[in-house]
Design brief:
Blueprint lengths: L1 E8 L1 H17 L6 E7 L3 E4 L10 H6 L3 E4 L7 E3 L2 E9 L9 H17 L6 E2 L21 E3 L2 E11 L2 E9 L4 H8 L11 H4 L5 H9 L2
Parallel strand pairs: 1-2, 3-4
Antiparallel strand pairs: 2-6, 3-5, 6-10, 7-8, 8-9, 9-10
């Protein structure tokens, strides 16, 4: 596995790097995966590839120094702030069930499950049924592609595919500001739906997360 160490970038830079790494893998016919860790500064709302942005209060985001960027991947919007983000790129053929979208999510996520267990955090996959909802905030929706702890969503992931390669990236929620989320997404954030690392174990620092995901 090719590992790209943790670094903090703007939203635009982070999405460009993921895109460039995907193209690099394709152009060089890479057979091994690329795994990258990153953070965001300033905080940033990322929109899914085909998601409408009419729910956003652009002036509020500017006043609070929050950027906006669009992802290569689908899904709903996320606030990238107090989190650790990962991206994983590999050929479809590298996975046992790479042609199956749900199965490929699970296969890639096994790496995340294993790393979190080293910190005493045990996760399981979310609901298997397709979800139809008006929610714009991704973390309020749990699918078979997401990882949950104690029945609450902890990691939201999304995929795109290009020329026989998969890019999967996702948000590992370290902490969150419920009031800020509700102001951005203009919807009630039910704390029964989501959970953060800090809520699971307040002794774990984000540096601990970075360390455990940097060892493989």
């Amino acid at each position: 596995m090719k590992f790209i160490p943790y670094e903090v970038r703007t939203g635009k830079e982070n999405m460009q790097i993921d895109s460039d790494l995907l193209d690099f893998a394709i152009e060089n016919n890479l057979e091994e995966p690329i795994f990258r860790l990153y953070g965001w500064s300033p905080a940033c709302v990322s929109l899914g590839r085909n998601q409408q942005d009419n729910f956003l209060d652009i002036e509020f985001l500017k006043q609070n120094n929050i950027d906006i960027v669009r992802r290569l991947t689908g899904g709903r919007a996320l606030l990238h702030d107090k989190e650790l983000t990962y991206s994983y790129i590999c050929p479809v053929s590298y996975l046992k069930n790479g042609e199956n979208v749900v199965d490929s999510y699970k296969e890639i996520s096994e790496f995340l499950i294993d790393r979190l267990e080293k910190l005493g955090i045990y996760t399981e996959f979310g609901a298997q049924k397709a979800v139809r909802t008006k929610f714009d905030f991704c973390m309020l929706i749990s699918t078979g592609a997401d990882l949950c702890c104690n029945g609450k969503k902890l990691i939201g992931s999304a995929q795109c595919r290009k020329n026989g390669y998969i890019l999967q990236h996702g948000s590992i929620l370290y902490d969150y500001d419920r009031n800020l989320l509700q102001k951005i997404f203009k919807e009630k954030v039910d704390t029964n739906s989501i959970i953060s690392i800090k809520e699971i174990n307040s002794d774990i620092q984000i540096s601990d997360l970075i360390k455990v995901f940097s060892e493989y």
